[in-house]
Amino acid sequence: MAPSVRSLPAPKTTRASLALPLMLGGLVCMLALPREATAITIVDLVWTATTGSGVTGSSSIDAANGDTLTAEIRVTADAAGIDAIALSLRFDASFDDELNLISATETCTVATCGGMTPITAGVLGTVESTLASAGSVLTMEAGTFGTGPSSTTFTLGSVVFQVNNLADDGVDVVGFFNLPIDGVVDNAQNYSAAAIFNGASVIPEPGTGLLVMNGLLGLAYRQWRHGREARGRGSYSPASADELLASSLFFAVATGRSASGACTITCVAVALPATFPSSRVRTTST
Question: Disulfide engineering: 83 pairs with which of 17, 148, 159, 274, CB 3.0-4.6 Å?
Fold first, then answer.
């Protein structure tokens, strides 16, 4: 007699048994979908004070070794607003030890930052630059549990540097490099690491020698015109070699403080009298 085969009843499908798979599937789908495009936050580092002669008020400033420079970190939010922001700075990425960090300060308050305050007290840490590595400020941050500022500009913090080894090497301070910590969350809770940071530069100030060079060029042009007119009258009396040498020596001393190319400019200046050899000095009596 063949054994009988019992058919097992099909499992019942209930709402409860489908709930967990559906929830997990929905979560996976949400993570896989691209997030809504967020507002673009713009951050500017603006030089606001100097002990030197540079002009403040922009992201670029003329400076000389020994100058102390202060910059504010200004954040501009658009209509989507900012619920939280975290920003780090990197400086001297060219490994020339151009700037020495003196201080880095978070300045946000509820009143000045549209309801946001620092999430932690002070910056998380700083690293000084060397000839072998860049320096950094980690991290300035601020946030709110409500709606943050929108369509406005506020100051997140400030940094103070001393110019140590001045070089004309392009952008000296950049931001938003410490990912994924750095970034912006807007008022709709969308995260973005695509905020725009306009880097800041320190450039050599024009040396006094450049101003003197202009004077010497003017003197040479005047002498050339004088000689040209005098030759037409049969009389030519250029400046004496002693006068030109005195001007050249003054120019050489003035370029001593030039931030770059001092030797080249000085050598050219000293060579100027050679362009007026005594053999070319001619007078014609009438």
Answer: 148
Residues 46-105: pLDDT tens digits? 999 999 999 999 999 999 999 999 999 999 999 999 999 999 999 999 999 999 999 999
Q: Are residues 236 and 153 in the same domain?
A: no
Neighbours of 54 (CB within 10 A): 20
- Give φ, ψ of 191 to 5 degrees: -90, 140
Q: pTM higher than 0.70, yes or no?
A: no
- Residue 12 maps to a domain: no
Which one-letter DSSP state was computed for residue 260? S
Note whether 176 and 261 are same-domain residues: no
Q: Does 168 lie in the same domain as 63?
A: yes
Residues 252 and 140 in one domain: no
Residue 27 is assigned to a structural domain of this protein: no
Whether 76 and 182 share a structural domain:
yes
Structure tokens, 173: 């301070």
Place of tokens 């090497």: 169
For residues 73 and 77, give the distance between their C-alpha atoms in angstroms, rounded to a whole number.
13
| CA pair distance 54, 186, nearest whole angstrom | 36
Which DSSP category does 117 fall into? B
